[in-house]
Amino acid sequence: MNQPEANEPIIPGYAGDPAQTRRWWRHPALAWCEFGIIALVFWADFHDHIFLSKTLYLFALAWISLRLRGFRWRDVGLVRFRTWGKTLLLGAIVGIAMELLELFVTQPLLMRWTGKAPDLELFRALHGNLKWTLLALVGTWTLAAFGEEMVYRGYLMNRIAGLLQSSQWKWIVSLVISSAIFGAAHLDQGITGQLENMLNGLLLGTIYLACGRSLAVAVVAHGVSDTLDILLMFAGLYPTLR
Question: Which of 57, 72, 80, 76 is nearest to 162 (CA)?
């Protein structure tokens, strides 16, 4: 492990061990550069210049950022919560609860407020189509559950909290901001879909913090909730796609 020089100041404010990395890479200016790249990726996605999914590009940015600063993914939460049994069980319970909350509470209330259903027409092709449904499930557990949790909770929440340094509100502020960005990432689903995903981001981020910043439960919960969505769409039972 590289130790800082005697008179070398350490720039504080990250969830990992500050002695693991050189001070240059910890300068706040680097974080602002990363946020600029994130904005550029969102702009490119809005103008249809992104191949497959912007999560891939954001994941690459997150990986490079961590590597430059001497951190590993486990430093931002890629660890199980206590045991794998508890991780899977708690994740499944939270995922099912999120799905029920979405279908019977938040989505109906948001639709009443905005006057619009979430735009999920892209998923209508899943109805009765086993091939596309299986591909969607693969994407659900890779790009959505694993990729998005690593990017928006593991990387982005820690990066924002790091800029706030010793503030007692840093994790609450980072939770709100990262959840708003997560909602904006679903621009194609319309205003109702964005708000719905922002609320999901708040729930997943809260789970992340409640589990001692372990991503595993949030990944499982995210995957279970989205899997239920996909299966309902396949069966033609999803409320706004009937």
Answer: 76
Tell me what pLDDT residue 188 has.
93
pTM over 0.85: yes
- Inter-residue contact 14 to 26 (CB < 8 Å): yes
Question: CA-to-CA distance for 126 and 131, rounded, in angstroms?
Answer: 8
Whether the predicted pLDDT of 198 surpasses 60: yes
Take residue 166 and report the two structure tokens written for it: 């010793």
Tokens 């045991």, located at residue: 83
Q: What are φ and ψ of residue 112, in 5° steps?
A: -65, -35
Collapse the DSSP code of 121 into the 3-class scheme (helix H, G, I; strand E, B; otherwise coil) and give the result. helix
Average pLDDT for residues 186-190, to the nearest whole number?
A: 95
Between CA 13 and CA 11 the distance in angstroms is 7
Q: Which helix (H) or strand (E) holds 125?
A: none
At 145, is the pLDDT very low, low, confident or very high (cuts 50, 70, 90)? very high
List the structure tokens of 9. 């100041």
User: ∠ CA(8), CA(10), CA(15), 5° rounding?
Assistant: 155
Helix (H) or strand (E) holding 227: helix 216-235
Which amino acid is present at 225?
Answer: S
Q: Which amino acid is at 59?
A: F
Instruction: Please tell me what DSSP assigns to residue 4.
Output: P
Q: Taking the CA atoms of the chain, what radius of gyration do you get in angstroms?
A: 19
Domain boundaries, the chain: 76-241
Q: Taking 60 as the threshold, does the pLDDT of residue 40 lie above it? A: yes
Distance CA 238, CA 231 (A): 9
Q: At CA 135, angle to CA 220 and CA 54, rounded to 5?
A: 70
CA distances to 74, 94, 103, 166, 205 from 17, in Å: 12, 30, 41, 15, 22
